[in-house]
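From the pipeline queue, job 12 of 40. The input is one protein chain; the requested action is below.

Action: predict structure.
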Amino acid sequence: MSIGLGEHFTYNKLLRFVLPSVIMMIFTSIYGVVDGLFISNFAGKTAFAAVNFIMPVTMGMSAVGFMIGAGGSALVAKTLGEGDNAKANGYFSLFLYFTIGCGIVLTVLGQIFIKPLAIVMGATADMLKPAVTYGRILMCSVTAFMVQNFFQTFFVTAEKPKLGLYVIVLAGVTNIVLDALFVALFRWGVVGAAVATATSQFVGAVVPVAYFAGKNSSLLKLGKTKWCGKAIAKAVTNGSSELLTNVSMSVVNILYNAQLLKYIGENGVAAYGMIMYVSFVFIAIFLGYSMGSAPLVGFNFGAQNKKELKNLLKKSLVVILCACVCLVGVAFLLSHPLAQIFVGYDAELFALTKHAFRIYCLSFLFSGFNIFASAFFTALNNGLISAILSFLRMFLFQIVCIYALPAIFGIEGIWFSVVVAEMLCLVVSVAFIIKNKNKYGYM
């Protein structure tokens, strides 16, 4: 039985509503992990380091899809809450077409500048060729990846979260099967891994476009629209925090790699790559919950249902607190087997990766609250606060920590950087929630 956006949510109903989004994000991260496993174990640590080195560039470009999707869905959910379905569908169509246009432009720019970027970022001689090869192949699917990211929040807004899960599972299985075929069996190395990933991204884009373009039972349908610069500006502003989060993550990853090359060398980049793959599985729970609950907040904001806003915030904070504590414990216990699976073939790299991940996982105590707070303000159509939180969390605080802590504590300071940055952001998140409680009436 489907659950509507305008219903009252108990813990049970809330968890059932957001579960498909959580599973969708977990599965997305898991097939990314499998991608890394195949590269590390069948192409070697140099190829693994090269892929992780160039990945921030492709992820940063695809973040435009997240921005328009998250910001646009907040506006569409609010419009649905106001009862104007036709206008909501016009916005939905406009935002998708705008995303595709942006993707085409970024594809061309990416093909031109990927090699110069890799050189400027400091790629070693051994890493440069595989990094550029992987990057150029993925640039061909940037538009598709942006569209896939765009739909992740719109599936929930359309009251079809399970469909979003099915699409991601289909794309993920495609990636895993092709990785096994191209990387493990044919031994095509980074080329095989890139083709597998690009193909899965096209699958993840084409299926939802076909669904919403045809007759369907959801709240949203693709069709004719007209240009509305104000709506585009609102969507971009609302979703700027998601763009800042992803672009900042890419920039910070580049800086992490530079510091690791300086203090440790190639092993440091490989260890950090494993941490990024695995940690995203844990972070995916927070992202999925925030993504799944955001349309509920946006709808009730549009309907001026302050009682339900209070209910959603209170229950969300309890759920996230429980998840934070559990995830830190699970991550610590799994640090040994996970490092063994990724880099067990190299004893020195294994020891480094295991130790680093046990420090890094402490950040899960704080990151869930920060991710939810940013998504919460996006859903309230307050892109400014959401962007500030994302900028502080993913950019300013981390950059300061990346350079300050290693200068004081050496290598250990690198691994503790994200923990300290998340702690600092939590203080700001709490301050913003308290400061704006009367304005939105959620407390």
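Job complete. The chain has a mean pLDDT of 87.
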